[in-house]
């Protein structure tokens, strides 16, 4: 069997992946593609953007949405040093206990703590939000098809509803939300946060930044994964070539006899 | 002890008492293999290697996994975030399942195309179908372990199938669940079975290999090995060829693990299981989609279950449905045509399984399901009666006698012998 046939089989395999892609793309609403810093195979997180995104999360989203899988220490990956992390963690009140007297108590957060939750429990979160549970954001980018583009679109999708549409109380119109009626009010407004690094806080900028931050939270291993991946793939390609020519050499007497 | 077989005296001492080195030498080194195998014969060894990869990564994952509905999801996330290279282990295991099925499906269609299931390899084939069944059970239960939304709802849908059994169905489902819904006892037993079934697969794989080595591999021409001139030793010829195949496979596999690890998964499984919220579309993993399409194509619940299992059961009796004595479809022009129809039919069923069960999709699913069974139950038994097969070569070493120039080389080769 020659290389041409091998190429054919690769094409069949490729076709399989392509059809899967087409399948998953066909169902979803089209979101604008934002060309994220982390989406290519060499992709990394834009750290400055992710730090700004953390600020947006902390000042806007964290009022309702928890991130129970993330610890303050994890933020070191975004470029914060230990002192900054301690300062960030100590801004939050954490319930701890029971202590030696059997009492629960609050104390300032430590870097080893998970992000403080806005509500004591899920029922409280539902009760405070008119029956709608604000989902935890730790994995939100991985938990939605085309997650990064989806979230950016959703945050930018608050527009005037069509004239003939009646928006019930406690619901809001969003052109990118499935069914168009969402229980979350528009979260991002011009200058909704004052960025520490002086970047202009336009709604689109904030949506991009918070999406970058949440993409990191969903896949904190992404940079290490892709870097290791490139090394592994390069090694395997060289190994494949070497084993191919070894095979040719070993088989030469058999092939020549025919 | 006659004359020592091995240079190393320790090896000889052991081998005299426990002939393990003789065995390995016989089965992995000298093992006579047809010399005309093409790359499709790589997929058997690839499947074996993938099984080992799954078992090794699975054992390490299980050291960090907690089989409890309150902790399972978070323990998987802890593996992804805090365990050293836990993300790598888990992504290899997760994508490994998909690649295992890709490899095994190619392996099965190879067997169909070249008639590898025919006498005297019927038991070899049946053991292979048994491995497929065990794989499906293992993969299904493994998908439940992360306890995401698709884990929970997939488990609910699939276990509920057993309720279609008349009279005892409901009791069986309760017994499977260990309660009155998919809950903690279900997760615990699935974890236990997911851990143990792969070792059962290893056992059946060993039997599969014993049966294989009884008569050796089939080959693309599909005629029996006539003598030494038709075979070459397994080592080094097929060890190096398998190594090359493995390195190409590993490259593709690594590309998925490192760059598209969630491509073959479903985003909903990153949402913790919630018995109160049903996902809009409950879809199984891609490798179950053809069977899922068959299940939904039948309007009756029990009928759907029977046809779905029937789609596998028909493979068990395949050696007796295909009555043609010619193995390879290279010499069966009609069978070759119908083989490709079957491939298209299976891909179509996979596509339809992913689509919602409504409108035109239902009609197409029924047609595709009907054709699947029509192929095995009607076409295959009838085909030998109407098909004129092409003349078979004399042996593997003297292939195709069609043109005069070829014929003269054959004569020349015969004279040499």
How would you characterize the overall build of this protein?
The complex is a heterodimer of chains A (258) and B (417). Chain A contains 7 helices and 4 strands, in the order H-H-H-E-E-H-H-E-E-H-H. Chain A has 258 residues and is mainly alpha-helical. Chain A has a domain at 225-258. In chain A, the strands form 2 sheets. Chain A has a two-stranded antiparallel sheet. A two-stranded antiparallel ribbon of chain A has the order 3-4. The model of chain A has no long low-confidence stretch (mean pLDDT 90). Chain B has 3 domains: 1-30, no CATH class; 34-278, Cytochrome Bc1 Complex, Chain C (Up-down Bundle), CATH 1.20.810.10; 283-390, plastocyanin oxidoreductase (Helix Hairpins, Orthogonal Bundle). Chain B has 16 helices and 2 strands. Chain B has a two-stranded antiparallel ribbon with strand order 1-2. Chain B starts with 8 loop residues before the first helix and ends with a helix. Chain A binds chain B through residues 1, 5-6, 9, 13, 16-17, 19-21, 23, 41, 69, 74, 135, 138-139, 142-145, 147, 218, 220-221, 225-226, 228-230, 232-233, 236-237, 239-240, 243-244, 246-247, 250-251, 254, and chain B through 35, 38-39, 74, 77, 80-81, 87-88, 91, 102, 232, 236-237, 240-241, 243-244, 247-248, 250-252, 254-255, 257-259, 261-264, 267-268, 270-271, 286, 351, 354.
């Amino acid at each position: 069997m020659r290389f041409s046939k091998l190429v054919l089989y690769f094409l069949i395999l490729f076709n399989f992946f392509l059809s899967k892609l087409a399948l998953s793309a066909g169902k979803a609403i089209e979101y604008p593609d934002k060309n994220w810093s982390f989406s290519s195979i060499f992709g990394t997180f834009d750290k400055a953007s992710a730090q700004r995104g953390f600020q947006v999360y902390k000042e806007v989203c964290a009022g309702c949405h928890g991130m129970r899988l993330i610890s303050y220490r994890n933020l070191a990956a975004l470029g914060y040093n230990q002192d900054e992390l301690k300062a960030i963690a100590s801004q939050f009140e954490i319930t701890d206990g029971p202590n030696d007297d059997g009492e629960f108590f609050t104390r300032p957060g430590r870097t080893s703590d998970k992000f403080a939750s806005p509500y004591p429990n899920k029922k409280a979160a539902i009760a405070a939000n008119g029956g709608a549970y604000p989902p935890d954001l730790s994995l939100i980018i991985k938990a939605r098809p085309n997650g990064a583009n989806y979230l950016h679109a959703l945050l930018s999708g608050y527009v005037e509803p069509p004239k003939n549409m009646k928006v019930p109380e406690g619901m809001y119109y969003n052109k990118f939300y499935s069914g168009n009626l969402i229980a979350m009010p528009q979260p991002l407004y011009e200058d909704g946060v004052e960025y520490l690094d002086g970047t202009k806080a336009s709604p689109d900028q904030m949506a991009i930044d918070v999406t970058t931050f949440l993409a990191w939270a969903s896949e904190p291993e992404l940079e290490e994964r892709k870097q290791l991946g490139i090394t592994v793939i390069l090694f395997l390609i060289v190994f494949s070539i070497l084993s191919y020519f070894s095979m040719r050499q070993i088989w030469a007497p058999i092939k020549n006899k025919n | 002890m006659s004359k020592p077989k091995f240079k190393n005296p320790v090896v000889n001492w052991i081998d005299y008492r426990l002939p393990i080195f003789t065995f390995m030498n016989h089965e992995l080194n000298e093992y006579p293999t047809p010399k005309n195998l093409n790359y499709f014969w790589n997929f058997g060894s690839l499947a074996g290697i993938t099984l080992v990869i799954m078992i090794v990564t699975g054992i390490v994952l299980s050291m960090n996994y907690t089989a409890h509905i309150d902790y399972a999801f978070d323990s998987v996330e802890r593996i992804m975030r805090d365990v050293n290279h836990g993300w790598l282990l888990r992504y290899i295991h997760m994508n490994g399942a998909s690649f295992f099925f890709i490899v095994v499906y190619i392996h099965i269609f190879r067997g169909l195309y070249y008639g590898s299931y025919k006498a005297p390899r019927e038991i070899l084939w049946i053991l292979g179908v048994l491995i497929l069944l065990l794989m499906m059970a293992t993969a299904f239960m493994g998908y439940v372990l992360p306890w995401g939304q698709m884990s929970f709802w997939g488990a609910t849908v699939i276990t509920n199938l057993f309720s279609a059994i008349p009279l005892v169905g409901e009791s069986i489902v309760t017994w499977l669940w260990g309660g009155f819904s998919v809950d903690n006892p279900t997760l615990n037993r699935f974890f236990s079975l997911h851990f143990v079934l792969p070792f059962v697969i290893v056992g059946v794989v060993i039997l599969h290999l014993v049966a294989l080595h009884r008569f050796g591999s089939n080959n693309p021409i599909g005629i029996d090995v006539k003598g030494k001139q038709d075979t070459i030793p397994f080592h080094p010829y097929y060890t190096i060829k398998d190594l090359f195949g493995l390195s190409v496979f590993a490259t593709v596999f690594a590309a998925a693990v490192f760059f598209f690890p969630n491509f073959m998964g479903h985003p909903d499984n990153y949402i913790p299981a919630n018995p109160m919220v049903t996902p809009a579309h409950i879809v199984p993993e891609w490798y179950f989609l053809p069977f899922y399409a068959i299940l939904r194509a039948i309007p009756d619940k029990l009928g759907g279950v029977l046809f779905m299992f029937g789609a596998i059961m028909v493979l068990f009796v395949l050696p007796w449905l295909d009555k043609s004595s010619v193995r390879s479809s290279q010499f069966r022009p009609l069978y070759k045509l119908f083989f490709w129809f079957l491939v298209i039919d299976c891909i179509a069923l996979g596509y339809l399984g992913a689509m919602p069960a409504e409108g035109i999709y239902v009609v197409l699913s029924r047609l595709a399901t009907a054709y699947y069974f029509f192929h095995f139950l009607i076409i295959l038994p009838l085909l030998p009666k109407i098909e004129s097969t092409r003349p078979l070569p004399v042996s593997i070493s003297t292939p195709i006698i069609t043109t005069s120039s070829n014929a003269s080389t054959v004569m020349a080769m015969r004279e040499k012998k």
